[in-house]
Design a protein that fits this description.
CATH superfamily: Vaccinia Virus protein VP39
Strand order of the largest sheet: 3-2-1-4-5-6
Number of domains: 1
CATH architecture: 3-Layer(aba) Sandwich
Low-confidence stretches: none
Radius of gyration: 17 Å
Order of helices and strands: HHHHHEHEHEEHEHHE
Largest sheet: 6 strands, parallel
Number of helices: 10
């Protein structure tokens, strides 16, 4: 297992006003509406979550970096857990024509409004129970998703990633290293359930036998 950072450049490209986020809209209401995983979460007001999640190509450099690092080639199978609208999977198909992509997400809205080119390869499902055979995928990824699970669900999800991956897997989750980052995370997030330090994430990986790669994002 290695720490590999594919995501922080994308994460840091967004400027965040943490106090404005909690002062402009009641946080509890925002969280309730966000966890419906519908229009409000993806394309509604920025006070709730994304404020309009549209394809802009920003994930192509992430896909390119993963392809290079993991040596992916046409015919290889990639699974994205928490795929949203499938933007990253679409960029995989641009970088490696002929790659086979699969996405799973809890949101009907995200799948219904996914990138048309990859929509046929997306399905509704939960990370804790993956409907795939053992050792099926050449790469399993999950970006900014697993921290939305409760601890009992997280245990199952990490075990499932290990089960369906032939060899390579990568996940990115939210974390904090100090009290300021913890406060910023609490102010900004609307769906996070696992508020873990880096040391606690490492504990979870060892507990579940997760052997893949990972990185963490912080709200500095």
């Amino acid at each position: 297992m290695a720490y590999i950072d594919f995501i922080s450049a994308v994460h840091k490209s967004t400027k965040r006003d943490y106090l404005k986020r909690i002062n402009e809209h009641p946080k509890a209401d925002a969280a309730i509406r966000a966890r419906e995983w519908g229009y409000d979460y993806w394309d509604g007001d920025r006070k709730i979550c994304y404020g309009g999640y549209y394809y802009d190509g920003r994930w192509e450099k992430v896909a390119s970096a993963m392809v290079e690092h993991y040596g992916l080639k046409p015919g290889d199978k990639v699974l994205d857990i928490g795929c949203g609208k499938g933007f990253l999977l679409y960029d995989f198909t641009k970088v490696v024509p002929g790659i086979e992509v699969t996405g799973i997400d809890i949101s009907d809205y995200a799948i219904d409004n996914a990138k048309e080119e990859v929509k046929p390869f997306l399905q509704k499902g939960h990370a804790k129970t993956l409907p795939f055979e053992d050792n099926h995928f050449d790469l399993v990824i999950s970006i900014n998703t697993l921290h939305n699970l409760y601890c009992n669900e997280l245990f199952d999800a990490l075990s499932e990633i290990q089960r369906v991956s032939k060899k390579h897997s990568y996940l990115c989750v939210e974390s904090y290293r100090n009290e300021q980052e913890k406060v910023n995370l609490l102010y900004w997030q609307v769906t996070c359930e696992m508020f873990c330090t880096p040391q606690e994430w490492e504990w979870w990986f060892k507990l579940t036998g997760y052997k893949g790669d990972h990185s963490l994002i912080y709200f500095e």
